[in-house]
Each structure stands twice: as C-alpha cells, then as structure tokens.
Amino acid sequence: MNIVRRAPALGAAEPPAPSGAGALAGMERSLWPRFLVAGVALMGAIVLATAVGPAGIPLDATVRIILSRLTGVETGDSLPALWRDIIWEVRLPRVLLAGLTGAVLAMAGATYQGVFRNPLADPYLIGVATGAALGATAVIVSDTPHSWQGLSVLPLAAFGGAVVSVLLVYSVARVGNTVPTTTLILAGVAVASLSTAITSFLMLRSTTHMFSVLSVVLGSFNTATWGELTWALPYAVPAAVVILAHGRVLNVLSLDEEQARQLGINPERTKLVLLGVASLAAAAAVSVAGTIGFVGLIVPHAVRLIWGPDNRQLLPMSILFGATFLILADLLARTVDQPSEIPVGIITAVCGVPFFLYLLRRARMGAYW
Amino acid sequence: MVRGSTVEKATAALDARGLTVAYGPRVVLSDVSLSLQPGRLLGLVGPNGSGKTTLIRAISGVVAPRAGEVRLAGDDALRLSAREVALRTAVVPQNPHLPPAFTALELVLMGRTPHLGLLAAEGRADVEASRRAMQATDTWELAGRRIGELSGGERQRVLVARALAQETPLLLLDEPTAHLDVGHQAATLRLMARLCRSEGKAVLAAIHDLTLAAQFCDRLVMLHQGRVVAEGSPMEVLTPDRLREVYGATLHVLAHPLTGRPVLAPDGDTG
Q1: In Å, how far is A291's CA from the nearest CA of chain B?
Q2: CATH fold of B9-266, please?
Q3: Nearest residue on chain B to A177, alpha-carbon basis
Q4: How much is the ipTM here?
C-alpha cells in the first residue's frame, strides 16, 4: 500500500537496503544466546582466576573445591585443607570482588554515557570515582565506626562524594540541553583533581590510616574478603535492577530531552534516578575496591561496537563483560610481576588509555553511538 | 480574532486559549488561541521567528506557558503527565538529535513508548503499528538502515512514521516538509489529509511554504511576532496586503488551475 511516491534511486553504487522484514527478523532475534555466551565466559574467567596463583592448585581441584562448598556435597576430601582455604577464603572472594567491581563500573559507565548522551562518560573520567574515594576517606580518617547495624556506611559516604561530584560536573559541563565532550572532560578533570587533592591532604594528616586510604585511592583487591562483598552487594544489586529496568527508556533518552518528553518520558526525573543509582553502585564499588579507571569506558564501548547501541542488551552485556574484564585484569595484576603485585588500575589504564585516545581522535565519534 | 469552528467545541482535539510563552524576558507567544476539531488539517504559517515552533512546544508540554491553557481532547494538558500527553499528541520535531546507530525501525518503535510500561517490551501490536506507519510514509524498506546512513529527507519521513506509530488523535508537525523534495512534500501532506479524512485525526502542521500549505490545509492560522494575525481559509488568509504587511514582500496570489486555491508567486527580477 505504498501511497507515497518512491524516492528517486540514489545510484547504483548504493548497497541494497535490507528489507523491512529483514530488520524485523533482526529485532526479534533473542538476546538470550548472547547473554548465555557472556555468562559462560564469565564463569570460565572466575574458575581460571581462582585456579591461578603462587600455590599451584590444579584446575580440576579448584572446580571440585568450589562445587563442594556450593553444594555441600563433599567431593574434595582427598585434597589438602590448605588448598580449600586458599581457594575459598583467599582467591574466590578476591575474584568475585573484582567481578562485582568490574560489573558495577561497566554498568555505571554505560548508564552515564546514556544519560549524558556522551560516549566518553565514565565513573573515573567524570570525577565520580575520585569523589567517592574522598567520601570514603573522610569516614576512614574520622575514626567513626564504619558500620551501622551490620551495614557498612563506607559505601554511603562514598555515595555522598560521588553524587556531589556528578551533580557538579553535570551542572558545569551542561551547555543548553547537551553535555559536550570537551566541557564534560574538563569539568571531570577539575572535580577529580580537587577531590584527589583533598583526599591526599586528609591522608597525609592522618598517617595511621594511610594504608587504608591508599588502598581506596589506588584500587586493589589484595585485601578482599567475603565481608567486602557483602558490604557492596546491598547497594550494587538494587542499583542494577533499577538500571536494567530502564534499558528501553535510556534508548529514548538517547534522543534529545524534548523528544523524550514528547514520547512520554519525564527526562529530568528519569535522569536523576539513573544518575543516582549508577553513582550509588559506583560508590559502593569504590569503597570496597578503590578507584579503578577506564573499565566503565572500555567495556560498554566494546559491547556497542560489536552488538550495537540498544541499551536492553548493552547494559546486561556490559555487566557480564565488565566482570570478566576486571577479573582477568586482576589476574594479570597479580601474576605479571610475581611475587609482587601491581595495582589493577595500572592494567586497566594500560588497556584503557589507548582506547580512550582512539575514541577521542575519531573524526566521526558518533558513528556507532 | 476569528475563533475556529464553532461546532462541537467540547470535543475539540486541541483547544489552546490565551497562550503566552516567554523565554526569560523575551515574549515569543502572546495570547494565542486556536482550536482544532478531529478530522481537520490546520496549517500554521508565518515568517521565521513568528512563534510556530514555540506554539508546538507549548502544546506538547515541552515549555510551560506563562499564561493560558491547553486542552487535549478536553483534558487540561498542564495537569497531565508526560506519558498522558504523549498518548494524546505526537510531534514531528524540526532538526531533532537522532542517535545515528539505531535503525529506522528501532526509532519508529520508540513512538510506542507511551503505550508501554517501564518493564514492557514491544509486542506484536507495537511492531504492527510501526510497520503500518512505515509503509504509509514509504520508509518500510529503510527499516534496517541505521539513522546515520539516511538522507535528510529519509530521516524526515522516518520521524513522521514515528509520530504515526504513536497512534495519537492529534499530530503536531513542525516543518514536516523541510528537507523533502517536491514529490515527498506533496506526498507527506497528502498522507496527512488522508489521515484526517479516513481516521479522524487532527493535524496541526507548521509549514513554511505558503503555496504548499494552501493546497492541503482547509484552514490556515498565521502567526506574526507571536500573535495570531489571521485565521480562515487559505484564500482569506493569504491576501497580498497581509503578505506585504507580515512578510514584507510583494507576492502575487494566483489561482490553482485545478482547485482554485491560492498559488503565490514573487515579483521576480523585473529589471
């Protein structure tokens, strides 16, 4: 029923346009196989990173120890008790904490990129991570108790710092209804420098807490315990639920605010909710793992490059690949210079900075945005 | 000022009264009133900066008026949520930002947003509505193409499809024929006229090209410096005197050979 005259043909060199039916088939293709592959990759990374370490524990023994603890069925009898302790009390918490941190940072990065409509938004680059570190540092050096009723207050303090930073950066970087890359990065750098300066000052004044503060600032998993996982999870999981529920809405927000409103979305309220929960999750990750840069930049971009911009697949895939990426980065951090360890932030920066520069240089930065 | 149709005022698809809008100290619309019945195509004309876009923004809830009220099918638009407004009126914006990596079909499906809850995925009805909208605007074969690969005219028609997929009783079009060649200009407005006739939609279209507006709209509203200066049939509104006064140009008003509607011709270079 083409009642409208066909547009003039654009020339023979034009590639044939996929038919509407083809596009429809592409849309109806289930995302679950994709999620399944990413989930299997994550499982593989967890097992591999748990198995590798100074005490040579074979892969199959690692799997048996994990399975026996998870199922309660004793299949690891014949294995040394020391191995079980190393796997369960030392390596697994560290691996899972790295995974949680990577998942949260990648998710927060994808969310910031969607809300700011800017491909270079990342919890580290826009000053959220350093703001969170400042919030956590303030609690650490103040000698107040770090938990209340079993819930750690460090993530909340970090959240305070993160929210102040993100609102500051957003209000400074905003030009009309857009957040241009230049102002975003400049505002992020300025806010990050200020909070880093204050953090350093607090750290130097309180030498007794220097080590705790340093681990927050530098970012490391070498003191990871199950406790830290249980600190961060009550913040990270609800944040993930809220963000994942907003996938389609984030797609609509990638238009401008005016169109989002005309399509029935309240853009101001939605952005505030998303910035809030993304910052809460990022703050929780910073308070247990420190500031780790570029995860929130690399992972969502890689996903976008390969599978496109639809936030309904971008957000879950970023979570899965963020976890996998940081687990492997941490594995590298503790094995590349044995017996000593290097901060995992060095690994992510080495991977992330060239990627960042590449994105910055791209003439058509919005090409796959 | 002439008020629109006097019949069935209670069920007007759009009834704006005394709308005054200001950006800071600058008043861009003052005391604008217009009413639009279901099934009618109303052309909004006027020179650059006369307030056409602002009027559409005010009706769709993007800017809050300083004074006056907007009623959409009888409901006070200022009291409705963004979603409730979006179920009543769809907008084809002028030069909007569009994410280049989404496909045309994905963009059209975004028109279904007000029909979907937060967690709902698009269902068969949404895909069907989008397909119908894309076939009507001759964009179905572009469905799988990325927005960034489309020409300006193709993008414009995809935006019209998005507004149709929203399935609202009222359509607000801001320069829907900009970027289009003459064939697609006529086709788009003919589609609008047909939607008014066969589906009872009400369409308010800001149209730059007066001759084009005169051919497809039964009534025109002319804005000048934020005020309604004329309303009526194209013949009543487009008089040489008024055109000279509003546009500062000498235009000859001819009659269309088939329909008798006004066709405007500028003076030309008379040496």
Answers
A1: 31
A2: Rossmann fold (3.40.50)
A3: B97
A4: 0.89
